[in-house]
Amino acid sequence: MKYLHIVLIAFLFLNCKNETSKAEVKTLTADEVVNKSIEVAGGDNYGNSILTFKFRDKTYKAKRNGGRFEFNRTFKDSLSVIKDVINNNGFQRYVDQIELHVSDGKIQSYSASVNSVHYFSVLPYGLNDKAVNKNLIGEERIKAKDYYKILVTFDQEGGGEDFEDVFIYWVNKATYKPDYLAYSYNEDDGKGMRFREAYNERYIKGLRFVDYNNYKSEAPEIKLQDLAKAFDSNQLKLLSKIELENVEVDLIDL
User: Fold this and answer.
1) What Cα–Cα distance (Å) separates residue 45 from each residue in 62, 72, 125, 205, 214?
2) Is residue 151 part of a domain?
3) Is there a contact between 193 and 217 (Cβ–Cβ < 8 Å)?
4) Among 70, 109, 148, 192, which residue's CB has the most CB atoms within a 10 Å radius?
5) Exposed (0-12), middle (13-18) or buried (19+): which is 108, by Cβ within 10 Å?
6) Which DSSP category does 150 fall into?
């Protein structure tokens, strides 16, 4: 009888401990996952920095300073040096340092092109912008690792020309780094989906940068949310590489 009491007490203790452990396991929200991901990548230092890099045949520069920003790209055509600038005041295009009048339609097109490169260059920074809507839609296993699966959409106001684009981020549960992302787009020259795999991670002055393998699906029945499964089973085709070259970082002291 004495031993029965001991076994019973031990059982109740372990059961209570297990229940306590379960209670301590808190399901994170999409905001909490993204906040941790941004912190791991460099946090608020992105918002007070000057970044320069080369992407394909163009040079990009981003200055962020306490809510003020300026994004630009510079490239050469056959005759001139062209510089596109986006800041808090709007868009300007310069040809050989002379400002050029640009139609509203072209402004939208050029702005979207410049913004897209700068947006991808600093992910996950930017996922807490006011126009961003985030939802944790589940968890998924990719290449034997566990991920939070976060759906991102945009408000029309403040969401830019491509506000209808839909993104999914797979954030590593162990590291909180977004190792994969997918997005759908609908543009004048077509619509489709892409899946990106991050690689070549490096930290420069505490800020994280990655390159991407850029994949597409040739099976129209595959949905955006299923692209990770298609990638995991080698059903996607490598389309291109997204590589940032000559990245330089200057942090702005407040």
Assistant:
1) 13, 19, 10, 9, 27
2) yes
3) yes
4) 148
5) middle
6) E
Q: CA dihedral defined by 184, 187, 192, 195, rounded to 10 degrees?
A: -50
Q: What is the reported pTM?
A: 0.85
* Per-residue pLDDT reduced to its tens digit, 78-126: 889 999 999 999 999 999 999 999 998 899 999 999 999 999 999 999 9
In this structure, what CATH number is given to the domain that contains residue 38? 2.50.20
Domain count, the chain: 1
Is residue 7 one of the residues assigned to a domain?
no
Distances (CA, A) of 251 to 41, 48, 65, 69, 121: 15, 6, 10, 14, 16
Q: How far is CA 91 from CA 67, 83, 106, 227, 236, in A?
A: 17, 11, 10, 35, 37
Question: Is 122 among the domain residues?
Answer: yes
